[in-house]
Amino acid sequence: MSEQQTTWHDAHKATLTAGERAADVMRNSMGSWRFVAGFIVFMLLWAALNSWVLATQAWDPYPYILLNLFLSMLAGLQGAILLIAAKRQDAIAAAMAQHDYDTNLQAKAEIERLTTINFEQLEILRELRALAASQNSRG
Fold first, then answer.
1. Contact 12, 67 (CB under 8 A)
2. CA dihedral 2, 110, 96, 33 (to 10 degrees)
3. Helix locations, 31-64, DSSP H
4. Crossing angle of helices 18-30/65-138, nearest 10°?
5. How far apart are CA 44 and CA 34, in angstroms?
6. Residue 34 and residue 119: Cα distance in Å, rounded?
7. What pLDDT score does 127 carry?
8. Is 23 exposed, middle or buried (0-12, 13-18, 19+ CB in 10 A)?
9. Rounded distance, CA 62 to CA 83, Å?
C-alpha cells in the first residue's frame, strides 16, 4: 500500500564496494567473542597436535615458529581491516554530521518563517484591536 521510504543509511549501503562490505563483515566477525573463543580453541588444538599427538612427526614443534608466522600475518591483516573499517566509519560520521547540519539549517529557516508569520499575525491583531477600540469610542 505505502512504499517504504529509503533512509540515508540504506542509500549509503547501496553505494558500498565489495571490498568495503567485506571489511565490514570481517570487522564484525573479528570483533566478537565467538571469534576470540574460536581462536583460543584453534591455538590449543595446534599446540596439542604438535606437542602430544604428533610428538615425533610434528609439522611445527615447540616453540611453534609456523604458528607465530601465521599469527603475525593475521595481526597485520587485522590491522589493515580495522583501518579500512575505521576510515569508512569516519566517512559515515562526516556524512551524518553534514546531514544534521543541513537539517538544522532547514529547521532554522522554517522557524524564522513561522516567527515572521507570528509577528505579522500579532501586528494584524493589534490593528484589529485598535480598530475595535476606535469603533467602540465612536459608537
1. no
2. -60
3. 33-48
4. 110
5. 15
6. 62
7. 95
8. buried
9. 33
Q: In the numeric block, which cell numbers belong to residue 119?
A: 509577528
Per-residue pLDDT of the chain (139 residues; tens, 9 = 90+): 455 667 766 777 778 888 878 877 877 787 788 988 998 898 888 888 888 777 777 777 778 888 888 889 888 888 888 888 888 788 888 888 999 999 999 999 999 999 999 999 999 999 999 999 998 888 6
Question: Rounded distance, CA 115 to CA 31, Å?
Answer: 50
105 in helix, strand or coil? helix
Distance of CA 16 to CAs 9, 91, 121, Å? 11, 12, 50
Burial (CB count within 10 angstroms: exposed 0-12, middle 13-18, buried 19+), residue 49: middle
What's the confidence (pLDDT) of residue 4? Answer: 64
pTM metric for this prediction:
0.52
Taking the CA atoms of 11, 14, 17 and 72 in sequence, report the sign of the dihedral they define.
positive
Q: Tell the residue number behind the cell numbers 542509500, with chain if given.
A: 11
- What's the chain's length in residues? 139
